[in-house]
Design brief:
The structure is a single chain. The chain is globular. The protein contains 6 helices and 20 strands. The protein starts with a helix and ends with a strand. A hairpin with a 5-residue loop joins strand 7 and strand 8. The protein is 13% helix and 36% strand. It is mainly beta. It folds into 3 domains: 174 residues, no CATH class; 41 residues, no CATH class; 133 residues, Immunoglobulin-like (Sandwich), CATH 2.60.40. The strands form 6 sheets. Strands 1-2-3-6 form a 4-stranded antiparallel sheet. The protein has a 4-stranded antiparallel sheet with strand order 5-4-7-8, with no helix packed on it. Strands 13-14-15-18 form a 4-stranded antiparallel sheet.
């Protein structure tokens, strides 16, 4: 009996010491080779589990020839676009990232066109380890187990040499999660800058646009450019509201956006954004607000109430919030989006903002509900 135990222990230790070549190679890649970590929460009934994380490498562009050869994908990358996914399981549950349908995975290129994983057979992949390939038609063997605290890798092959922007996995039936992973880099902002609202792009007037020198160092100048950016939002409603509080509501915009996977940032699905603008008329610095928003249609009927929205900020006396913070409601089952999008798109929505609490840096907290 002791010999059996010793042999079993030895076998387990050896399996830990000698990981398979694919895992060893991918584990050895520098962290900055991978894209940013995307935090993923699973749907019901696993929504109480901790999150897991996804990172992605575009093998065609992000690996050198030596790394491709070591992974035995150098020839494949001449015919396929290969996404390599790293799943880091920080949850307290077993997760099966391979157990999804091919139609649940979509790659979106920079032109906005969509692609499903290719139909791939064992003869197509050559010597590449089959257990790591998501879209193999004739493989029924085991995939790596994704136990709590572990990491697994998954290869997804798309036919042709593509210019990917997004990788979307939307598995609502098996693994119960959705992730939209942004593979693209930001576009060069300079192509969107104009010298005035009806003027020329900045690059056409590179020698004459307005700027100020912020810093000079070692023959370099750090400059601030004065320019206009074209606003391509679909629908906008401006509302200005005032009140008697030391924190004033000075503006509110609701905007509707159609689904667009070519956007630089989330959300990519159709959604409504709400921007709320406040001014601090107190002598103390404003640190935070709690407020409700009631949304009405053109008849004055209540469409939706957003309760206890929190705004963390830092406003001195007389300062107003900027336009960079917004709340959004995305299309989906039982989403408030379904109640408000039509009124926002048509410009008929009306908003009522009710400030409930304000917190200041001198220790004062004003509770308007109790006043």
């Amino acid at each position: 009996m002791k010999k059996i135990i010793y042999l079993l222990c030895f076998a387990l230790c050896v399996s830990q010491l000698y990981a398979d070549p694919v895992t060893s190679i991918l584990d050895s890649l520098p962290q900055d080779s991978w894209g940013k970590k995307e935090k993923v929460k699973r749907h019901y009934p696993y929504d109480e589990d901790k999150a897991f994380y996804v990172q992605v490498i575009n093998a065609n562009n992000d690996l050198d020839n030596e790394q491709k050869a070591a992974l035995m994908i150098d020839e494949l990358t001449q015919s396929y676009t290969i996404m390599i996914l790293r799943f880091n399981n920080s949850s307290n549950a077993f997760i099966y990232p391979f157990d999804t349908y091919k139609s649940d995975i979509v790659l979106v290129d920079k032109a906005g066109d969509t692609y499903e994983p290719a139909d791939v057979t064992m003869s197509d992949i050559g010597t590449l380890d089959a257990k790591y390939i998501f879209n193999l038609l004739d493989y029924d063997g085991p995939h790596p187990r994704f136990v709590p605290g572990s990491r697994v890798y998954m290869f997804i092959l798309f036919k042709g040499l593509l210019d990917p922007k997004l990788l979307i996995i939307d598995d609502v039936l098996n693994a119960y999660y959705k992730v939209i992973y942004d593979l693209s880099k930001k576009d060069d902002l300079s192509e969107y800058l104009y010298d005035n609202m009806n003027g020329n792009p900045i690059l056409q007037k590179i020698n004459s646009f307005n700027y100020q020198v912020l810093e000079r160092k070692d023959g370099w100048e750090k400059i601030g450019i004065e320019a206009w950016i074209k606003d391509n939002r679909v629908a906008k409603t401006n509302i200005s509201i005032d009140n008697d509080h030391v924190v004033k509501v000075v503006g509110c915009n609701f905007e509707w956006y159609a689904r667009d996977y070519s956007r630089d940032d989330k959300p990519y699905n159709a959604h409504v954004r709400a921007y709320f603008k406040f001014r601090n008329d107190s002598s103390a610095r404003l640190l935070g607000l709690v407020f409700d928003v009631n949304m009405y249609d053109s008849f004055g009927d209540l469409l939706y109430s957003a309760k206890n929205l929190k705004y963390q900020l830092s406003l001195n006396n007389g300062e107003e919030t900027g336009d960079d913070q917004f709340w959004y409601w995305e299309e989906g089952y039982n989403s408030p989006y379904n109640l408000i999008w039509d009124s926002v798109k048509n410009g008929t929505i009306r908003g009522e903002i009710i400030i409930k609490k304000a917190v200041f840096d001198d220790g004062e907290t004003i509770d308007y509900e109790s006043n």
